[in-house]
Amino acid sequence: MKAKIIVTPKKAVLDPQGKTVANALEQMGYKGIGAVHVGKYLEIELPGGDRESWRKQLDDACRKILSNPVIEDYQLEIQ
Amino acid sequence: MNFAVLQFPASNCDQDALHVVQNVLGQSGRLLWHKENSLAGFDAVIIPGGFSYGDYLRTGAIARFSPIMQAVRAFAAQGGPVLGICNGFQILCEAGLLPGALIRNRSLQFRCEHVFLKTVTRESMFTSRIPEGKLLRLPIAHGEGCYFADDATLEQLQAGGQILWQYVNADGAATDSSNPNGSLRNIAGVCNAARNVAGLMPHPERASEEILGCADGLLIFESLLLWLHGKAAQAA
Questions:
Q1: Chain A residues touching residue B103 (CB < 8 angstroms)
Q2: What is the average pLDDT across B193-208?
Q3: What is the CATH number of the domain that holds B172?
């Protein structure tokens, strides 16, 4: 079992990295793309056990440390 | 007065801050390793610059969970003065002791240069000694110094006089070109609502002696010292 967490900058937050990547794509000829948002991906290995209990704990961890709610959103998935 | 200068793995402005405390201000001070858990006997705390924990995850994100930060939280709750410089500012924001967050510079570049700062209010223990209208010339050195907070928080900061310093040009105007990192409202430093915790991205400890080219930063430390003396006199 593993947890997959995707952290992305909130839409209201200036994302210069995303903007630079979007400009680069545009210059390379990939026309018509929209905004790009650069975030990070975390994979956490879990030894098994109760899925819901892990979800609760990791949701807590996402809010407390793995993301900063002032500037970031996160998606948590347990597989 | 007795100053604690916190030291995390990869702090790198700790010695500079301690030097200012001991050799420029003539006060006592001690480096305090992040594993310590007491601030007993200290009058003020400085969280210095650097790259605590390699800036892993986010700047300041791991440092905020160090044992010493629990002591800082309690110290601040009792009204004790805490000043965060550069990475120290980032740590205080991550810890929720200051509002907002510091994100990647708008330019995506690490900026290392001198900037001008306007002191927005002298009504704080960190700014009272700065002469009215004087611009501070201080060095910056950061990659993640773009101050962000949502609109409601910004309004609150503005209304409450919590914005202490703004990036300005040589004429004192907060223009876009004088903003080195894209900070909202050109914010360079803020304080909390109780006004005893402050953070700023520029480095006053690197500009507190004339031999370093500029001593404007000393005014911030002197403001703090003046407040501590005032408090001690009140208690006596």
A1: 9, 13-14, 71
A2: 98
A3: 3.40.50.880
Residue type, A79: Q
ipTM: 0.85
* C-alpha–C-alpha distance, residues A69 and A77, integer Å: 18
Number of domains in chain B: 1
| CA-based nearest distance A15→chain B, Å | 8
The 10s digit of each residue's pLDDT in B106-143 is 999 999 999 999 999 999 999 999 999 999 999 999 99
Q: Residue B112 sits in which domain range?
A: 2-235
Task: Provide the b/e sequence for B67-84 (b: ≥16 CB within 10 Å).
Answer: ebbebbeebbeeebbbbb
CA distance A16 to chain B (A): 6
Kindly state whether B144 is in contact with chain A, defined as any CB-CB distance less than 8 angstroms: no
Contacts of B94 in chain A (CB under 8 A): 68
List the catalytic residue out of B13, B86, B93, B214: B86
Distance CA B54, CA B200 (A): 20
One DSSP character per residue, B110-122 reads -EEEEEEEEES-S
Distance from CA of B143 to the nearest CA of A (A): 12
Our answer to whether residue B205 is catalytic in this structure is yes
pTM listed for this prediction: 0.94
